[in-house]
Design a protein that fits this description.
Blueprint: H1 2-12, E1 25-32, H2 36-49, E2 53-60, H3 62-70, E3 77-79, H4 83-87, E4 92-101, E5 103-108, E6 128-131, H5 136-148, E7 156-158, H6 161-169, E8 175-179, H7 180-186, E9 190-193, E10 203-210, H8 216-227, H9 229-237
Parallel strand pairs: 1-2, 1-3, 6-7, 6-8
Antiparallel strand pairs: 3-10, 4-10, 5-8, 5-9
Length: 243
């Protein structure tokens, strides 16, 4: 328990702060790994609109974040990649679905493994990365594979979507199932392949202020900012869709 909380605090020390006025308050946001790029950008916009407030992020798999919160980690806001993980957090106050995301096949640049679709994920001769079933991207992958009638043959199961994407970026696998927003954020390093069964595994993303939030006022302001037109635009530009 003590080691877990120390690890969380070490992560938080590396997070963002705005230029100019020295921050006097911090709002701590625990967010799904797939939100890393867009929430980092939203956090900077929030800091610019709220001088004196620093946003500290802890990005990881939603199941791991829920566990940390339930064990007493100091968080103000939780943004999950699936309702199931939000429901595990008994301290969450009135969660709101703020966006949606769906899967895409990610392959290394040039597609050296000649991946053509979801059927290749059942081919044992292919090197495949999936997320573990307990994290939202893994649960979504399970639904998509079932919809396609494919029994997955993964070579590795990762604890969050960014870890699965890293396997692709490094060329360690022929393909991975990640969110389409992750493919977009990776730029030219990876290529994305759409597949029809992705529509059977769309993830809702809920966000909530936590009941024991050390900074509940700024936590509510941050959630309101995410739900604002400015936040919605940032999410849309990142490839997320409206709920």
């Amino acid at each position: 328990m003590r080691a877990l909380l120390l690890a969380v605090l070490l992560v938080l020390t590396g997070c963002s702060s705005s230029q100019g006025q020295e921050p006097t308050r911090t709002v701590t946001v625990f967010a799904a790994a797939s939100l890393t790029e867009v929430f980092t950008a939203i956090g900077k916009d929030f800091e610019a609109a709220n001088p004196g407030v620093k946003v500290a992020f802890n990005f990881a798999g939603s199941s791991a974040l829920a566990q940390q919160i339930n064990q007493g980690a100091p968080a103000d806001v939780f943004a999950s990649a699936a309702p199931a993980n939000m429901q595990q957090v008994t301290d969450a106050l009135s969660p709101v679905t703020f966006t949606r995301n769906q899967l895409e096949i990610a392959v290394p640049k040039g597609n050296p493994g000649k991946i053509t679709g979801l059927a290749d994920f059942g081919d044992a001769s292919r090197k495949i990365a999936l997320c573990a079933e307990q994290v939202p991207c893994g649960a979504a992958a399970k639904k998509a594979l079932a919809a396609a009638g494919v029994t997955g043959a993964p070579d590795t199961l990762e604890q969050d979507v960014k870890a699965a994407l890293t396997k692709v970026r490094l060329g360690e696998v022929d393909a991975a199932l990640v969110y389409r927003t992750d493919v977009k954020a990776a730029g030219a390093e990876v290529e994305g392949i759409d597949f029809p069964e992705a529509t059977a595994a769309v993830n809702d993303y809920p966000i909530a202020v936590l009941g024991k939030a050390p900074n509940s006022a700024d936590a509510k302001a941050f959630v309101d900012f995410v739900l604002s037109d400015r936040g919605k635009t940032a999410l849309t530009n990142a490839g997320f869709t409206a709920p």
